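pasting for the record
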Amino acid sequence: MVKTSLVIMAAGIGSRFKGGIKQLTPMGPNGEIVIDYSIHDAIKAGFNKIVIILRKEIEADFREVIGTRIEKACENAGVEVKYAFQSLEDLPDGFALPSGRTKPWGTGQAVLAAAEIINEPFLVINADDYYGRNCFKLMHEFLVNDKAEKEYAMAGFFLANTLSDNGGVTRGICSVKNGYLTDVVETHNIIKTATGAESDGRNIPVESIASMNMWAFTPDFLAILKKGFTEFLADIKAGKKDALKGEYLIPVFVGELLEKGEISVKVIPTDDKWFGMTYKEDVPVVKKSFSDLIASGVYHANLYEDLDK
């Protein structure tokens, strides 16, 4: 059996989500959180290793809320669980944390925090996003099948399926040619309108392909990502990027690599409907969505009971 990892980025602060750590908000009937459903779907799709990236500050809360449940479910299913920790101070030799910097370095550095424990093809996702069951299957198939050198993949969601009713969201709006990604533009404050979607007054077609930070990589990408982070920090040091707010983001970095022709990224389209917790007001909607999925038979009320070996 091919070893494949699900890498979950759970270190985000969630500054727009008031009243608690959003990744740990109970959603299911037995206290399940969004991560539970992602792990369940990944294991069902064939992933056999789970890597969870946290901040040290939330480790105790995370383990109390979900750690024991995940570890037991994964043990029963024969799946390995590993933890990694993202830190502002975790920088390559020759670089120091800029004075006054409190903002995390971004998703690129988050994945690098787990680089030493990823030795197999891996899928990267956000902790607070529900992606849908089918896209895990599609992405796993990509990872275990033959592909070109430096060929990776991205799950392509239709923008209409990724919007929040409670405010603006940030999405990577993608350009695709012959099934491959040609460009990804990080687009902020996309809001749902009566006729579609817009960002700062500019219309965004709802049939656009959006990146939801679901990326399939092979281990060789980690060296590319590490080199890119060093170059990013060199730009910070030289004053070319904002030392306090600049972020090393996977979609942006992938876009730069595509522009240079150094990699290829297959876009794997999915009709799955995303939902997540960008805002506190999203919580009841997400809870109802999971309740509906259970009622329709997509999930068991006792989520992990169908995973035992």
